[in-house]
């Protein structure tokens, strides 16, 4: 499907509202959003949404407060129709091929909300095409893809914000980091990261590909596999099992399971916490145990008709600072427990608790404590709105956003190492200085994957 119309003209210049916010960082989001919406058309960014599924329709409405959404791209025509009605009042230009979007010189920004296995190829080509990008997490499918992205980002200077919006949560996660940075916990000794169990499925039969879905293009760089789908047989249960939309994250062919799903959020905050405490968060090894519902040989699933990512896990990450360890597991509360010499706190998307938090009533943090952990950038809104505001601010000033690709990949590499540990059933050793797995040739070979012919990534 090509666009219903093509827009011509020179690339629009813009003046983002975020520069004004820099002088008034306490202005409520509701006010600043109205200001952004009131800007003239010629001053606002124009962006395209590539991948109009769940994350796309959740994040794009926030982006619309700061930029004009003019184009949608998806390999499923039903997604395009739904997204166009929901997000654009039926007025967006529609595409099935992202390359047509990148070819437009009047689009400033792309939001990449595809399944994980497409992130790297589209992002690299977007940067090469002169686009800034908001890319959902996890940024990559493999460790080596992260090296390619970082290389291209440095070469092009494009601004890339990764969708780990917990980095822009000021009342919870940034407040927790500020408490740690202010020494309220002392030296960190132990961190427990709870990310819930992975997905389960019965055996899923091969099914006819929906007529609206281009399955071959959905697979893209990953190996050819048969489309599988099954509705839950239990009466009254509205649940489905598939290797396609939404459930792609439970297949190693397309994702990394819980470890790169929730792990990309919570392990991120855990490692930022180590750095905030002034300790070395360079990973050196990942070991532990995991359970899969299918058999593996040499790190690859041998059964292909049910979800194959780790469903249960108890993993330990060691760091260059030998005083602190991180335990990543499925069977504790979702969130992060920071345990230090002077106290402990627990934080997730619903709460921030612990004695050091209660003590803030009588001994508050310095006024600039949260701003310091936010690298001194303007604070506008909270969570996703703040994350998009930071992205727009970084575009105007050509600076690294709060979730830049370089710091994100240091964290995400730990998630990938954890996945390799689960698949091989042994401890994986890592050299941060060379960014290589050491002492294990098979594990090292899993830092990359071959791409299907016609979908290679050229960096």
UniProtKB/TrEMBL annotation:
PROSITE patterns according to UniProt: TAT
Positions of the Gfo/Idh/MocA-like oxidoreductase bacterial type C-terminal domain: 203-456
Domain Gfo/Idh/MocA-like oxidoreductase N-terminal span(s) in chain numbering: 45-163
Pfam family, one: GFO_IDH_MocA
Gene Ontology terms, MF aspect: nucleotide binding
Name of this chain's protein: Putative dehydrogenase
Organism of derivation: Aporhodopirellula rubra
């Amino acid at each position: 499907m090509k666009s219903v119309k093509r827009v011509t003209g020179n690339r629009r210049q813009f003046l983002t509202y975020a520069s004004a916010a820099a002088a008034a960082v306490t202005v409520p989001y509701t006010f600043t959003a109205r200001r952004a919406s009131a800007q003239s058309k010629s001053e606002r960014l124009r962006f395209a949404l590539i991948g109009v599924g769940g994350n796309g329709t959740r994040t794009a409405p926030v982006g619309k407060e700061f930029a004009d959404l003019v184009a949608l791209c998806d390999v499923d025509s039903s997604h395009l129709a739904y997204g166009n009605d929901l997000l654009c009042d039926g007025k967006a230009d529609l595409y099935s091929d992202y390359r047509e979007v990148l070819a437009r010189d009047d689009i400033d920004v792309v939001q990449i909300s595809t399944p994980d296995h497409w992130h790297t190829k589209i992002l690299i080509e977007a940067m090469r095409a002169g686009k800034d990008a908001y890319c959902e997490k996890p940024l990559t499918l493999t460790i080596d893809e992260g090296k390619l992205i970082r290389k291209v980002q440095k070469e092009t200077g494009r601004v890339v914000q990764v969708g780990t919006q917990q980095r822009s949560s000021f009342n919870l996660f940034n407040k927790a980091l500020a408490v740690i940075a202010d020494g309220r916990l002392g030296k960190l000794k132990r961190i427990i990261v709870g990310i819930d169990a992975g997905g389960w499925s019965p055996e899923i039969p091969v099914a006819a590909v929906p007529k609206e879905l281009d399955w071959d293009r959905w697979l893209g760089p990953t190996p050819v596999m048969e489309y599988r789908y099954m509705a839950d047989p239990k009466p009254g249960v509205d649940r489905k099992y598939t290797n396609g939309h939404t459930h792609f994250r439970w297949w190693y062919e397309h994702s990394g399971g819980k470890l790169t799903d929730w792990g990309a959020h919570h392990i991120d905050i855990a490692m930022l916490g180590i750095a905030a405490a002034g300790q070395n968060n360079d990973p050196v090894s990942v070991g532990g145990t995991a359970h899969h519902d299918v058999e593996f040989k040499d790190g690859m699933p041998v059964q292909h008709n049910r979800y194959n990512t780790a469903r249960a896990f108890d993993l330990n990450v060691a760091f260059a600072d030998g005083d602190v360890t991180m335990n990543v597991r499925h069977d504790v509360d979702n969130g992060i427990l920071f345990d230090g010499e002077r106290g402990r706190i627990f934080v997730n998307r619903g709460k921030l608790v612990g004695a050091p938090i209660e003590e803030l009533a009588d001994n508050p943090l310095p006024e600039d404590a949260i701003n310091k952990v936010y690298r001194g950038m303007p604070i506008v809104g909270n969570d996703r709105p703040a994350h998009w505001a930071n992205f727009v601010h970084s575009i105007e000033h050509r600076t690294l956003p709060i979730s830049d690709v370089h710091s994100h990949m240091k964290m995400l590499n730990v998630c990938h190492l954890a996945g390799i540990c689960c698949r091989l059933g042994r401890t994986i050793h890592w050299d941060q200085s060379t960014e290589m797995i050491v002492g294990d040739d098979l594990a090292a070979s899993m830092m990359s994957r071959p791409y299907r012919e016609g979908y290679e990534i050229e960096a």
